[in-house]
Design goal:
The chain is about 45% helix and about 15% strand. The protein is built from 13 helices and 13 strands. The protein is α/β, with parallel strands linked by helices. It has a domain of about 250 residues: Rossmann fold. The radius of gyration is 19 Å and the shape is globular. The strands form 4 sheets. Strands 3-2-1-4-5-6-11 form a 7-stranded parallel beta sheet, sandwiched between helices. Strands 7-10 form a two-stranded parallel sheet. Strands 8-13 form a two-stranded parallel sheet.
Length: about 350
């Protein structure tokens, strides 16, 4: 369980707050009473969750919306000077595997150099600050094996996205070792950890080339769902699950006498590892329709089998997933159907957050 008192009035910075996960995190922190600063590029998709939520939480004096690029170190320096954050969640990224093949240099630049820009800008702080750097479950050297990856397994990445996130993990660890500490060239104030999660689903994701948004667009338009890799297995989890882990990790970084400045996996239970075909079949149980095989043999490589071991998060943070695979898919489909029928994104998200908190 989260420490709600910890978050009330806490100065929090989210990079990438206009993205899918960032928008959910922004709303959750708003409910918890934090003073939130958001720094991100403008949202790309139309519709997008950020704009859907913003109209219901604007106006307000407890959060600040800043459009900017993590490539702009001067802008980040000014942001940190103004915001003086006590907690930072770094979600800004180029997050799509297929997009990384189209723009590999931009992907590596944003995901690696952008992360280091943020850490450099945080060096100016003169007070304690917990920093959760979000990467992905794809940072591991994928051997297509059937058991889960642990935080100590080798990093790697076949595609530009995965390799950029693995490189970010190495860069963050190196920066922490080099510049966090008591020496003259170091800072004693930053407590930095990385969080590895992926394949989140949940209401409000409108990105291209993701199976759940693709399915929801197809069903709402009475079209068959295109599937490009029905046999690929993923650890499906609701977006709220890893966000609860990020929040819990930040609390531990700030409050523990032995802050866990290291990497953590946040994934679902083994039973939530299902193929894309199984996921679509479960979706169709709740929103009837059809699907079509859209496999392209010439498409760029994507990992087929992926699973995380999460016992470290349970042991050190007391964190574990709450919602089953069935609940996760049902709540996500219900969100889209309710929103399609006219209910606001704010109401739909609030209902899911309330249900999760009471679970």
């Amino acid at each position: 369980m989260l420490n709600n008192e910890f978050w009330r009035g806490r100065r929090v910075l989210i990079t990438g707050h206009t993205g899918f996960k960032g928008s959910w995190l922004l709303l959750w922190l708003h409910h918890l009473g934090a003073e939130v600063w958001g720094y991100s590029l403008a949202p790309k998709s139309d519709p997008n969750l950020f704009n859907q939520l913003a109209k219901d939480i604007f106006p307000g004096n407890r959060w600040h919306h800043c459009i900017g690029d993590v490539a702009d170190l001067d802008a980040l320096n000014k942001l940190i000077k103004d915001a003086q954050p006590e907690v930072v969640f770094h979600l800004a990224a180029q997050p799509l595997v297929r997009e990384s093949y189209l723009d590999p240099i931009g992907t590596w630049s944003t995901n690696v150099i952008g992360s280091l820009h943020l850490l450099e800008s945080l060096r100016q702080l003169q007070h304690k600050c917990a920093v959760v750097m979000v990467t992905t479950d794809k940072v591991y050297e994928n051997r297509e094996w059937s058991y889960g990856y642990r935080e100590t397994d080798n990093l790697g990445g076949h595609d530009p996205y995965s390799s950029s996130k693995a490189a970010a993990e190495i860069g963050i660890a190196s920066w922490r070792s080099s510049f966090c500490g008591p020496h003259q060239h170091q800072t004693p104030y930053l407590l930095i950890a990385t969080a590895r999660a992926g394949n989140v689903i949940g209401g409000g994701d409108w990105a291209a080339d993701r199976i759940f948004p693709d399915a929801m667009r197809s069903l709402s338009n009475h079209q068959p769902i295109p599937i490009r890799n029905a046999l690929a297995t993923r650890p499906w989890q609701h977006v709220i699950e890893p966000l609860s882990g990020y929040l819990r990790l930040a609390e531990e970084l700030m409050l523990s006498l032995n802050p866990p400045c290291e990497a953590f996996n946040f994934g679902p239970t083994l039973s939530s590892n299902r193929t894309v075909g199984e996921l679509v079949s479960t979706i169709l149980d709740h929103w009837p329709g059809t699907w079509i095989d859209n496999t392209d043999p010439s498409a760029p490589h994507e990992a087929t089998l992926l699973h995380l071991q999460i016992d470290k998060a349970y042991r050190l943070l007391g964190w574990s997933p709450r919602w089953s695979y069935t609940t996760t898919v049902k709540r996500t489909v219900d969100w889209y159907r309710s929103n399609h029928d006219g209910r606001s994104a704010f109401e739909c998200c609030h209902e899911d957050l309330s249900a999760f908190s009471q679970n």
